[in-house]
Amino acid sequence: MKSIELIMGGRGDCIAATGMISYLRSIDGEIQVHGGGLADLLHLEKVSIIDNKHRLEKRAKTDYTLAIEPETGYTHFKQHLCHHFADQLGIPRSIRRPHIVTSLSTAFILNIHKLPFKGYIVVTRRAGWEPRVPDEQDMDWVIAHLKQRTGLPIVEAGGAPDSRVSCHTDINLVNKTSIQALYHILDGAKYIFTLDSMMYHLAMERHIRTPVLAWWGNIPPALRAYPGSFDYHNESCLECRQKDSLTVPSRCFNGTRSCLALDKEKMAAIIDDMLAPYPRFLNVGNAKSFIEDIASEYCRGRGVDVGAGRFPFQDATPVDNGTDMNACNLQKFSDGSLDYVFSSHCLEHLDSWKKALSEWIRVLKKGGTLFLYLPHESMVLWHPNSPWVGPDHRWIPVWQRVSDYLVDKGMAITALDQGPDRYFSFWGVFRKF
Asked: Which of these CATH numbers, 2.60.40.420, 3.10.20.580, 3.40.50.150, 3.30.450.40, describes 287-432?
């Protein structure tokens, strides 16, 4: 029997590790897991749980250790946490997703709680770290504002030491659902408002495209593990951490309440943007942040980010519209020299997009990966000559048109999501024969 010790910050981090636990079980047989608060998370065959309740200190002698960050326990990563766990074990990226076993269906769960599919807002007011939780009256104001702006019923969910909910809440599911049932409830929500990361780990498992607003409280924006999320942040938090520190500020965990003071005007603006048909973040760049965790599963080794702009893909050589290299001319790279080519929201800017794709294929090794992230045709504000993009977008990418061309050029489709995702985009992964 193999054994694993989880050194985590909370349940969300434990959820992120379930994919690796499932994988290790498949190759090693029966698995014994040491960790805190796991009894209701892991219902995997041949997995036994020793619920030691400890989080951030290694205490057991085990075959594997999965930790957020071995030295501090507090570091947050730009990639999904399961990527970091898997790196410690050398597990293939293709199986890094969380894995929570359930025999339930979304329709069954929604029917039990009399919830209309995509017709309610899920709110959680609890967080793993108490200093991250705002005052009750602030949460009541947020819930009231959400309800007033949308006219949708409010569903409060999650775990809490008491059953208090807002007077504006329509359905109280606090402490009334399992983790397995909760992610079906999230699947049926139109919007999600959360104070903690657990909802995100559940969403990773379900591939939810529902807009999520996270009030991260004391975590500075640059350190959040989910840069593609909606968020609210009180700037006073920046005073509570050392300059250029890459860890969560310790003073916040000692109870600094000013970091969680609600600026109602700012919060209202963020919520209004979240509810808009085309939120403002769609037109400020960094589309890569919405796809980076998925792309990192396929783009490994030596590669380029074509059209990188101000937000280059991790470890890739950035290529922009320069005089020495551009999307149609990667002359610095010889034939078959790269492991991958990554490109996010670039191809639609090119009149000669077919020439560019041919050039990208040229520099790929046999078995190399081409990862494309492109605007979905349904996003009318990104159409050529629209008020947002004007003439910058030269054509409207359509999945079938792009994939047909690449297949005709000898590329094989490895994975795809035809979208639209939360960034109104679609993505595809192609392998060179």
From this structure: 3.40.50.150
Q: In angstroms, how far is CA 25 from the centroid of its own chain?
A: 25
pLDDT digits (tens, 9 = 90+) for 72-87: 433 444 455 666 667 6
Which CATH number is associated with domain 106-276?
Answer: 3.40.50.2000
Are 16 and 98 in contact by the 8 Å Cβ rule? The answer is yes
Distance CA 198, CA 13 (A): 7
Phi, psi dihedrals of residue 66, rounded to the nearest 5°: -110, 115
Assess contact for 347 and 353: CB atoms under 8 A. Answer: yes
In eight-state DSSP terms, residue 339 is E
Tell me, what amino acid is at 355?
Answer: K
Q: How confident is the model at residue 376 (pLDDT cuts 50, 70, 90)?
A: very high
Which residue did the predictor score with more confidence, 31 or 337?
A: 337
DSSP string, 14-82: HHHTHHHHHHHHHHHSSEEEEESS-TTT---TTEEEEE----SS--S--SEEEES-TTTS----SS-HH
Strands 121-123 and 212-215: unpaired
Q: Strands 154-156 and 121-123, how do they pair?
A: parallel
- CATH 3.40.50.2000 maps onto the chain at 106-276
Q: What is the rounded CA–CA span in Å between residue 256 and residue 266? A: 20
Question: 327 and 319 in contact (C-beta within 8 Å)?
Answer: yes
88-96 contact pairs (CB < 8 A, 24+): 89/20, 89/24, 89/64, 91/20, 91/23, 91/24, 93/296, 93/297, 93/298, 93/300, 94/297, 95/19, 95/20, 95/22, 95/23, 96/19, 96/20, 96/297
Report d(CA 164, CA 137) in Å as an integer.
Answer: 12
Best CA proximity match to 299, nearest among 49, 5, 83: 83
| Band of pLDDT at residue 147, cut at 50, 70 and 90 | very high
Check if the beta carbon of residue 131 is closer than 8 Å to that of residue 256: yes
Q: 148-203 pLDDT, tens per residue?
A: 999 999 999 887 666 678 999 999 998 888 877 888 898 889 988 887 667 767 76
What pLDDT digit, counting tens, does each position of 329-367 carry?
A: 999 999 999 999 999 999 999 999 999 999 999 999 999
